[in-house]
Amino acid sequence: MLAVSLFASNASAIQIGGNITFTGGATLNGALSSATSVTSFENVQVLNLDGAYSGFVSVGDAVTMAPSWQFNPSTAVNGLWSVGGFSFDLIASTIEHQSNAGLTISGTGTLSGNGYESTSGLWSFSTQSISSGGVFSFSGATTSTAAVPDSGSTAMLLGLVLISIVTISRFRN
Question: What is the rounded distance in angstroms from the CA atom of residue 151 to the CA atom of residue 155?
Answer without folding.
Answer: 9
